[in-house]
Structure formats: C-alpha cells, structure tokens
Automatic annotation (TrEMBL):
Protein name: Nucleic acid-binding protein
GO biological process terms on file: mitochondrial DNA replication
Pfam families according to UniProt: SSB
Keywords annotated in UniProt: DNA-binding
Keyword DNA-binding included in the entry's annotation: yes
Alphabetical list of Gene3D superfamilies matching this protein: Nucleic acid-binding proteins (2.40.50.140)
Species annotation: Kwoniella europaea PYCC6329
Top-level division of the source organism's lineage: Eukaryota
Length: 153
C-alpha cells in the first residue's frame, strides 16, 4: 500500500512540475484588471483585412492623494491604458459608452517590441503593452457624444 501511495504522489509531482515547464503553456496567464473612467468615446476602426474593432482608453489613479504645497491634497497621477476590442459581441455595449463612463475591464496583456528608430541597431529596445479586451462591465454609464443631442434612449 505504501508503494501505491509513493507511486501516486510521484505521478502528481511530475504533473505539477510539468505545469511549470516551458513546453506547456496551458496554465500561463497574463491578465490586467482595470477599474477606471473612459478618457474618450470608444472609436470603431478596421484591421487591414477589414475586420472591425474598437479601441478605447481607460484612465486610472493609483494611491491616495498626497499633500502638496500649501497643505492642499493633490490627486495621485493618472495612468492611461489603451484597450483593443476585437470581440464583436461586445461592440454594441461599447457603442453605448461615452467619455467619463466608469468601467471594469479585464484584458489580456501582451508585451510587444517597440520600434524606437529605423536607423538604430537596437531598434527593438523597448516593450509596449498591448491590452486585448476580454470582459467589460459598466459601473456608471455616460452617454456617448453621438447620443447627447437631447434625445432619450
């Protein structure tokens, strides 16, 4: 019986270490969660092959306000995140959002090379983040500029 337990635990150990090996990517996750406000109305664009996608920016503040000159509280710095949505099922929801809407976004993070100069030998020296939209929840909706002509929904 002890040998069965040892065999069974060694097979579990092999499976566990296998999950962290470079040959299996099944468990790899690179996800970002943003809770913030839209910096502008989402923009509809098309890929070079003609597939529609939306791009939108989310503004976030991290940290507590800090005391500035004269004892006044200064807001923490704002970070801007550009998100790309290729999921056509989310496009109707994005169409209804406007600048200032508060959203919860889950996005897949992909680091891409950033071309600094076409003549430089080290032109792919820096990385830039590419956020691919996965999930969106609206916390507080602001109408897009196209709906703010005085008409109600």
């Amino acid at each position: 019986m002890l040998t069965n337990i040892i065999k069974s635990s060694s097979s579990i150990a092999r499976t566990t270490t296998r999950a962290f090996s470079s040959s299996s990517r099944v468990l790899d996750v690179s996800k970002v969660i943003l809770v913030g406000r839209l910096g502008a109305d989402p923009i509809l664009r098309n890929t070079s092959s003609g597939k529609p996608y939306y791009t939108y920016t989310v503004a976030t503040n991290v940290g507590a306000p800090v005391e500035g000159e004269g004892g006044k509280l200064q807001p923490p710095p704002t970070s801007w995140h550009t998100v790309f949505s290729f999921n056509e099922f989310q496009h109707p929801a994005l169409q209804k959002l406007g600048k200032g809407s508060t959203v919860y976004v889950e996005a897949e993070l992909e680091m891409r090379p950033y071309e600094t100069s076409s003549t430089s030998a080290e032109r792919y020296m820096y990385d830039r983040a590419f956020l691919k939209h996965q999930k969106l929840s609206v916390i507080n909706r602001v109408k897009p500029e196209s709906e703010q002509d005085g008409s109600d929904e």
